[in-house]
Amino acid sequence: MKESLSKTALIISFGTLLSKFGGLARQLVIAGAFGISAAYDAYNYAYVIPGFFLILIGGINGPLHNAVVTVLSKTNNKESAYIINSINLSITFLLLFAGGFLFLFSDPLIKLIAPGLEQEVHNIAVVQLKIMSPIIPLSGLIGIGFGSLNAKNTFFITTISPIISSFTVICGVGLFWLTKESFVDTDPIQLAIKGGVIIAQATLIGAFTQWVVQIPSLIKKDLFRFNLKIDLKHPGVKEIWGVLTPATLSSGMLQINVITDLFFASSIAGAAAGLGYANFLVQTPLGIISSGLILPLLPVLSKLANKNDQKKFINKVRQGLIISSGTMIALGSIFITLGPSIVNIIYGRGAFDSRAIDVVGGLLIIYGVGMPAYLCRDLLVRVFYTLGDAVVPLRISIIGIVLNIILDWLLIGSSLPFGLINPINFGARGLVLATIGVNIFSCVILLLKLNNKLSRTIPIKQWAIDFCKLLVCGIISGIIALKTNDTMSIYLGNNIIIQLLKIIIPSLTGIIGFLVSGRILNIQEMNKVLNIIKGILISS
Asked: Most buried residue, 132, 230, 508, 515, by most Cβ within 10 Å?
């Protein structure tokens, strides 16, 4: 099982890495073409609802994906195809209705999400939302296809399909970037609308391609069938809906927090664009680790839960948490110490000026602090799903929404109709701090609830000690990376190659410091990683 899990994790990580590079190229093109201008600021508001569905319903590790994997991993291909057909039809009908609603009421929806937008940005966002509304029904087809293939041990195609989506955006936005100099006589507002339309159209085409590329693999696995029969009474269909409904509500609470953040961000010029750029840099490593660890771990936990093997189940959960938090603390320490430099080397060209670098660099530092809590919360929620319990994550998520609204309001000045009543105003950074607070709260409560569910057999105290050790390793790693960067700045110049080396070398020294510190503090997983590295070096 360990060998199979490692092989699957490697395939998924490689495919996800390719997709993340594609996503990075996409963001580079967007940054160069738009910076933090009105067109991209509007796009972040327009995409929030289609993106909500694409991530929640169509995304890997989303509730639909997880529900399909859990059920289909226990059935043969013939029964799986029957279940898929019923789920496809029922979900698509619902999502077609939702997409039509989005198209018809795009203007009031943008006003609801972002009441503080300037009229120019609002108008662009409305047009973009109409264009991207078909993404909603597409998300159901994408999510079911991903889950079906993963349940039958086909992982690579699902992890690389996003790169095709990124390619369409790169082509569309890239062409606009290369040709927009020819529109010098065009009214700036009309030019912004043109750019906004192009990025929305490219996003829609990209979502469509994500579904299309799955079809050959589904046909090969004999999972692509179509008839108009919907059997809601089939045990597998009932089980998927039973897990999907509360799980969607629970995971949706996290997306509602995103909407809440954008609601408050609409009164801060360029905040949505800045949050979008910084969040991408954080989500890149998060996505790789999440797909490489949580995705293959989910079926293993499901099988152990069915066998009632509680000891192995707890060990797997601990292993997942230590690896998740360890990697995120190490990467977070790098983002904290090198944030502005990372933003400059990645985005600093075209329309992405020094102001944009300062805004996004500051946000990346704050995001780095909260990376461990984000991924651990994600893992713990899915642990509950494997135990067939989506109610506890739902309840905690509801509390988290209320907490997020309160923290957002408090950390950006506590605005009232007659002005700000709170001297504490962190601006866009306050919105990130609020999200971090909610994720930490959720992690603690989820872990305590899981311990109760498993008859208090989790060694909470020992896990807490191990986590504190990881934090110490992270502090040491950050100090090493910072000192290395400072030393290089004294003796080296500042051309593009040197700037790149001033990120790579401090990052490598920081990670080495993290692993060595972990070994000194006797963290089991760090010992294993160093032994693997040692073995590779000796054999070479």
From this structure: 132
Lowest mean pLDDT among 1-5, 59-63, 132-136, 259-263: 1-5
Alpha helices in 221-270 (DSSP H): 235-265
> Any idea what the Cα angle at residue 512 is, between residues 376 and 484, rounded to 5°?
110
Give CA separation, 537 vs 7, 64, 384, 531, 540, in Å.
21, 42, 40, 10, 5
Identify whether the C-beta of residue 77 lies closer than 8 Å to the C-beta of residue 221: yes
Residue 37 gets which letter from DSSP?
-
Query: Which alpha helices (H) appear in 416-495, and where do they start and end?
Result: 428-453, 460-491
φ, ψ for residue 444 (rounded to 5)?
A: -60, -50
Identify the three-state secondary structure at position 474: helix
Work out the burial of residue 24: count CB atoms within 10 Å of its CB; fewer than 13 is exposed, 13-18 middle, 19 or more buried.
middle
**Rounded CA gap, 368 and 370, in Å?**
6
Nearest to 39 by CA among 105, 134, 125, 101: 125
Averaged confidence pLDDT in the chain? 82
- The strand pairing partners of 420, in sequence order, are 415
Angstrom distance (rounded) from CA 199 to CA 104 = 20
